Amino acid sequence: MFFKIYLIIINVVAFFVVKSDKRKAIKNKFRISEKNLFLISILGGSIGFYIGMNYFRHKTNKTKFKIGIPFLMLVQIILLSFFV
To answer: What does the alpha-carbon distance between residue 16 and residue 48 come to, in Å, rounded to a whole number?
Structure first.
């Protein structure tokens, strides 16, 4: 039960982190590093990040995000299917 709640929270956080970074990019403010964006995805937020990435049209032209986030999402889904 705790793990499901964690996944929901981390994906909601990832979604809003993408929104925040997009807003900062538009306003030319200090941005969230790509390392931290990937870290949120690696920690389980890849689905929320992917949805946010496409919804806000942010990082969709960067190859490492266009390929990396769906790859992380696939790996996490496969891992979940084995362990849950």
So the answer is: 8
Phi, psi of 62 (to 5 degrees): -85, 120
- List the alpha helices (DSSP H) in the chain: 2-26, 34-40, 46-55, 63-83
pLDDT tens per residue across span 21-37: 999 999 999 999 999 99
Backbone φ, ψ for residue 35 (5° rounding): -60, -45
The reported pTM is 0.93
**Cα(37)–Cα(46) distance, integer angstroms:** 10
Rounded to whole angstroms, the Cα distance separating 24 from 30 reads: 7
The domain total for the chain is 1
Give residue 57's domain range: 2-83
Encode pLDDT of 43-79 as tens digits.
999 999 999 999 999 999 999 999 999 999 999 999 9
